[in-house]
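Weekly puzzle thread! Below is a chain. First person to post its structure in token form gets bragging rights.
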Amino acid sequence: MAIETNEPAAKEKSLNFLEEIVKEAADRGVAIQTRFPPEPNGYLHIGHAKSICINFGLAQKYGGKCNLRFDDTNPTKEDVEYVDSIKRDIRWLGFDWALERYASDYFDQLYEWAKELIRKGLAYVDDQTQEQIREGRGTVSEPGKESPWRNRSAEENLDLFERMKAGEFADGEKVLRAKIDMAHPNMLFRDPIMYRIIHARHHAHGQSDSIEHITHSICTLEFDVHRPLYDWFIQALGIWPSHQYEFARLNLTYTMMSKRKLLKLVQEGAVMGWDDPRMPTICALRRKGYTPASVRAFAEMVGVAKRDNVIDLGKMEYCVREDLNKVAERRMAVLNPVKVTVTNYPEGKVEYFECVNNPEDPSAGTRQVPFSRELYIERDDFMENPPKKFFRLQPGGEVRLRYAYLIKCEEAVKDAEGNVVELRCTYDPQSGGGSSSDGRRVKGVIHWVSARHAFEAEIRLFNPLFTKENPDDCEEGQTWEDNLNPESMIVTKGWLEPSLAGAEPGRTFQFERVGYFCPDTDTTPGHPVFNRTVTLKDSWAKINK
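Winning reply:
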């Protein structure tokens, strides 16, 4: 029997403006076709990841398709390394493309369309220099001046254009310009250059989209001024009418998105490469331990806006923390160790405790962790003179070793400088598995590793690459490079439980009470390296609350 309640139904999440447009088209029976058109001249970053999620995600959700089109406007400069990395990043994010295309595939068709514009009197060959063309464009408040070559006949223009293609003229000697309006208020309409000698056309996005029957050409906000010109070419040629829609690009605090500046960091050795975990590239996020699901969740969280804004880096960390909490197996690791000797535990004895791999996922099962007389705990988990509400180890105090026994600190051994080098403790033999000899309970629970069984690893702790929220915010006389964070990577050592031995890149673990970590690609036999993906502290959620 159905039970009626007066409670309102759960409110569905409202659609962003792009999804409203795509949904409306899909509801009308339009076969949705999008495209992702990266330039293969560098590695994709988190901003591209947002675009990937939008273009592929909308097509996927509304039964459409998304093409991958490499915008290789100057194919001689492109590198297969970048093409391969782009494909790898898209697939890692969980998407695949319908067709793989290159803008250069369409050069012959674009050339024919350029000749058609010439025949229609809508394009002409200009002999002016680049400087003369720039001066002749005018200003926002003043109209431009027509080129003295603007009224050449179609026959002469066709002849010159074909000779340009044949290589008869020097670089920059002639250009092909669209013939529109030198007094147009939109400066882009003042006879824009279509072809230069050697260099490929500038305004071919719309024609390429038309060839592929792209229904929704989605791009970032800086292209909104190009939309009227995009439409002009389509209308002038009478070709299939694709439509352009713009959204705000992604900007993150403490993060540089300029591909040119990122390349400079790589070339100058300021980072370890494009996949350095401090970089905002997708391959760097992968190396750092981010999951595809966390990146997609971040893209969903920041949404699609019509105005540029800057997103708090903490939001991205929140998304990966939320995902890893559900999927990452737990392990114990001590990064700043102090030795603990359990004086009443038999020498040479080893026993194994069953430890839960992931309390969020019972199917992850359990593992066996060795326990022995000598242990390591975090140095921060002991204080000689603790403040109130310090529930970890202190002289005469008792704590629970995670999954194992209660131990009591009897003595702190110091070196000549007064530094604590060893804690001598006793354990309650009846306290294994959460019990105790007399039913007593303690508030403090700390992690540990067996000194005899743990192995040493290099640990890399990553912080933001820049010291300022806006890396381009420079003091007088400085450059953005002066804002690089000298402590963006801190290399230290840690002692890890034996089950982590042999862990391969691609897996991420929660080091209990420490943070999320993953094996780095620099790992070699005998020299394991682990990267910190993110801390356990969720500062953004607290601030937001």
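Puzzle host: Confirmed. Bonus trivia for everyone else. The longest helix spans residues 46-61.
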